[in-house]
Amino acid sequence: MGHECIDASKEFKFGEDVKSGVTEIVLVRHGETTWNAAGRIQGQIESDLNEVGLKQAVAIAERLGKEERPVAVYSSDLKRAKDTALMIAEACFCPEVTEVPDLKERHVGSLQGLYWKEGAEKEPEAYSAFFSSQNDLEIPGGGESFDQLCERSMNALEQIAKKHKGERVIVVTHGGVLRAIYLMITKASSAGKLLNASVNVVHFHEEKWIIDSWSDVSHLSSVGFLQRGFDGDSKP
To answer: What are the recorded GO MF terms, alphabetically (predicted)?
Structure first.
């Protein structure tokens, strides 16, 4: 797979160059959940959108509904992402949401269900593995390594990109997946905070990934968002 990152502003603008085979993917992190607000580790456990998260989903749906219409909406198969995606699809006049299991959040082993503040004490090995710089280290308790997360996330995204050359699509996923995608494309040392219901736009063209914009939450000014976001690069 090609993961080269180049300056998008000097290359093309999506609206002008769709015929050149550029895929535009709008990556969205799901709305805030009850567990997000409580500082609890979700991983692949289900957690519902809370009141703020539902408002965020409405706000992002309204925003994307006013932009260029996507040809498809894809989502992780976890409920918090699917519920966000369904609201977006309705606003964008897309008849369905296509579930992609490989876009689900990282399985974080025995950390799942714990609060971040208790992870180091209750599951020290898993906690250490999660924050380790050793990317091939699997998290104890059935968790994935960061390399495994990157491979499945990028493979899923590339399949979508190749299917929709010259088109715009929306993909609703999770903080850990967005972090993996950002780090794979940019080769940066940190992805920073990944905020709920944020808009993150990437382009795929001639086997190259390009980040057009990242972590845009301008549409959430009236409903708010968790400032701490998902920050897998630093310990809480």
So the answer is: phosphatase activity
Note whether 185 and 209 are within 8 A (CB): yes
Percentage of the chain modeled with pLDDT above 70: 92
Radius of gyration of the chain (CA): 17
Interatomic CA distance for residues 68 and 190, integer angstroms? 31
Tell me the fold of 8-220.
Rossmann fold (3.40.50)
Q: Which residues are annotated as part of the binding site?
A: 29-36, 80
**pTM of the shown model:** 0.91
What region, left, alpha or beta, does residue 212 occupy, with left being phi > 0 and alpha being psi -120 to 50 degrees? Answer: alpha
Q: Is the pLDDT of residue 178 over 70?
A: yes
Which residues participate in catalysis according to the annotation? 30, 105
Q: Could you tell me where the DSSP H helices lie in 133-199? A: 146-163, 175-186
Cβ(220)–Cβ(53) below 8 Å: no
- Return the DSSP state at 47: -
The Cα 162–Cα 22 span in angstroms is 9
